[in-house]
Amino acid sequence: MTETMRAVRQHSYGAPEVLRLEENVPRPEPMWTEVLVRVHAAGVNPVDCKTRDGGGISPSQGPLPITIGWDVSGTVVEIGGGVTRFAVGDEVYGMINFPRIGGGYAEYVTVDSRQLSPKPESLTHVEAAGVPLVSLTAWQSLVSVGNTGPGTRVLVHGAAGGLGHLAVQIARARGAYVCGTASTDQVELVRSLGADEVFDYTKVRFEEHAHDIDVVVDTVAGENGLRSLKTMRTGGVLVSLPVPPDEATAAEAARLGLRAVSLTVEGDRKDLEDITALINAGALKPIIGNVLPLERADKAHELIETGQAKGKVVLQVI
User: Fold this and answer.
1) pLDDT tens, residue by residue, 197-210
2) What is the pTM of this model?
3) Which of 141, 221, 137 is nearest to 176 (CA)?
């Protein structure tokens, strides 16, 4: 008899109310190279909302119903054949199955073992679940694309947001000079994360103050991209994360000897291990603003879509 679990599923695409907690959902079984993880907490990200609504990276891969969610932290409870990295009882976290439908909003999920890393010892499962997707995106923007290191000057837009607050800390840990944009009520928070300069976008135009920037991490988009080019020095790179740079921004970047690129995050185990090392060293700490029970996944999505979320939003499963 197949064992069952609770999981949030959707039978159609649409508004947050399509997310429903269901009982007696068949529990997955690990295949070769996979582990079965008992999920303690699942992180919620803007791409979850886009996917739920029918957009995002993987809007219709596989038949409905689906269970979304890519960030999990939990405990290995079963291992498939060929797995050598983990044993039953290990605490793990990671961005799972991306960009395929993740399955993270559930009590159990199967994951390729090499998509996971040991959970940072200093973090709870709730904190760890808020880390993988945004930290990997920030790391790959700053390090893989931007080659951020000592002497680099970085500008992070939305520096107090779920991704931005980690990007500030990663850039700082890499030895960069860090600038950020934030609203009035978030300026001191961004300073406390290690930013050297913080520009209150409600009071000043950042392009009149930031200068000689090598890497821009833009989590806001819109006119920010084109304006950011005015702050940069030759050879710099603008990484636009919500959407690819528009034609005008790309053309102006090329004229100025700059790069304007987009980035789709990859589940790179080595990157996650480097991030874990920063966390264990005390150089990186996620801010968890909202923790809700699994059955309120709809409310978690509303918080993100209405801009009411402060820091990361996480679903507590157990």
Assistant:
1) 999 999 999 999 99
2) 0.95
3) 141
